[in-house]
Amino acid sequence: MLQTIKESVEYLKRKIGEFEPEVGIVLGTGLGGLVKDIEVVHSIMYSSIPNFPISTLEFHSGKLIFGTLKGKKVVAMQGRLHYYEGYSMQQITFPIRVLNALGIKTLFVSNAAGSLNSDFKKGDLMIINDHINLQPESPLRGLNDSDLGPRFPDMSQPYNRNLIAEGLNIAKAENITCHQGVYCAVTGPNLETKAEYKYLRIIGGDAVGMSTVPEVIVANHMGLPVFAISVLTDEGFPEDLQPFNLEEILETASQAEPKMTQILSQLISTL
């Protein structure tokens, strides 16, 4: 792992020169628009980076974007990787290892998710304050390299409390409907049945998605503070469950994205 990280980092440093990112950003499904607010210095395709997995989804660009946002040097993953694409957990979290090795000090993660909480409506935002991992393996499974992190990393505060509080304050000041809650991570790519949505709500979930948690586990393993936010693009309410419609989900993400971008941008500016 250390050797493959080193190879990727050396390649990227040759491309970006003296640029040293301090903030890492992962942009989820339908949420790549934040890049428009970044003063881009370098844009590098995943496919050109040694050891980097390639996003297989047509609505994920698959680029690393280096630039400045609100005066902060950032690197954004425009398009993330998912377990359901066929990659291992170690592969889909490899980019987070690389961003850490490039020197980021904080990780911001976004995703599109389905609401499980009837008080959280389609188009709302939810800052993640905890998660339930229902994916079949951990990205930390296997031999542990102590240079990357401890064998048994603590997960009592996987999402930074100060960043959560500040994010909620920004949302309130900007009159943006933004909740906080628990994110359930499932494998996908199939959506959930009525019984599964009911189960996820019973065990304490407020939203459900197919990403984010592996990246958060790896970030915590390396000691990176994390802030994560979901755009709620659909509603998994068993009593009135509607058939899945990808076009509607992408449209909802597109409409809600400016609100999410506003919170992330202002929050990053406070660092």
TrEMBL record:
<keyword id="KW-0808">Transferase</keyword>
<dbReference type="GO" id="GO:0005737">
    <property type="term" value="C:cytoplasm"/>
</dbReference>
<comment type="similarity">
    <text>Belongs to the PNP/MTAP phosphorylase family.</text>
</comment>
<dbReference type="InterPro" id="IPR018099">
    <property type="entry name" value="Purine_phosphorylase-2_CS"/>
</dbReference>
<feature type="domain" description="Nucleoside phosphorylase">
    <location>
        <begin position="23"/>
        <end position="268"/>
    </location>
</feature>
<dbReference type="InterPro" id="IPR011270">
    <property type="entry name" value="Pur_Nuc_Pase_Ino/Guo-sp"/>
</dbReference>
<keyword id="KW-0328">Glycosyltransferase</keyword>
<comment type="subunit">
    <text>Homotrimer.</text>
</comment>
<dbReference type="GO" id="GO:0004731">
    <property type="term" value="F:purine-nucleoside phosphorylase activity"/>
</dbReference>
<keyword id="KW-0597">Phosphoprotein</keyword>
<dbReference type="InterPro" id="IPR035994">
    <property type="entry name" value="Nucleoside_phosphorylase_sf"/>
</dbReference>
<dbReference type="Pfam" id="PF01048">
    <property type="entry name" value="PNP_UDP_1"/>
</dbReference>
<protein>
    <recommendedName>
        <fullName>Purine nucleoside phosphorylase</fullName>
        <ecNumber>2.4.2.1</ecNumber>
    </recommendedName>
</protein>
<comment type="function">
    <text>The purine nucleoside phosphorylases catalyze the phosphorolytic breakdown of the N-glycosidic bond in the beta-(deoxy)ribonucleoside molecules, with the formation of the corresponding free purine bases and pentose-1-phosphate.</text>
</comment>
<dbReference type="GO" id="GO:0009116">
    <property type="term" value="P:nucleoside metabolic process"/>
</dbReference>
<dbReference type="InterPro" id="IPR011268">
    <property type="entry name" value="Purine_phosphorylase"/>
</dbReference>
<comment type="pathway">
    <text>Purine metabolism; purine nucleoside salvage.</text>
</comment>
<dbReference type="InterPro" id="IPR000845">
    <property type="entry name" value="Nucleoside_phosphorylase_d"/>
</dbReference>
